[in-house]
Amino acid sequence: MSSSVVRRVDSRRGLAEFIRFPRRLYRSSPSFVPHLDMERKSFFNPSKNPFFSHAEAAFFLASSRGGETVGRVSAHIDHHFNEIHGGRTGHFGFFDSVEDEETA
């Protein structure tokens, strides 16, 4: 694959792509059970998810040269976690990628 471009999700359309990507990536896996899109939209909505009252997150998509989404990841800072543990720790999650080391 190689030469993926990573961009921050900054629109509803980008968030919809972030939510739908695993469905396309794992569509041939018989054990994959996708989340409900409506539930994920609420989950990632700062006004609906109480996590965002003490945390912040950024979402990223990786695209191939042809514009196809080939990966996703999120970066989080949970301020309550940092207060409790006395640190400055960040976290990542929602990592999904095509089987390509450079993309991952």
Plain-language structure description:
The protein is an alpha+beta fold. 27% of the residues lie in helices and 29% in strands. It is built from three helices and four strands, in the order βααββαβ. It has a four-stranded antiparallel sheet with strand order 1-2-3-4. A hairpin with a 5-residue loop joins strand 2 and strand 3. The longest helix is centred in the N-terminal third of the chain and has 14 residues. It is globular, with a radius of gyration of 15 Å. The N and C termini lie close together (11 Å). The mean pLDDT is 95.
Keywords:
104 residues; alpha+beta; 4-stranded antiparallel beta sheet; globular
Secondary structure elements and pairings:
Blueprint (H helix, E strand, L loop, with lengths): L4 E4 L3 H14 L11 H7 L11 E9 L5 E10 H7 L5 E7 L7
Antiparallel strand pairs: 1-2, 2-3, 3-4
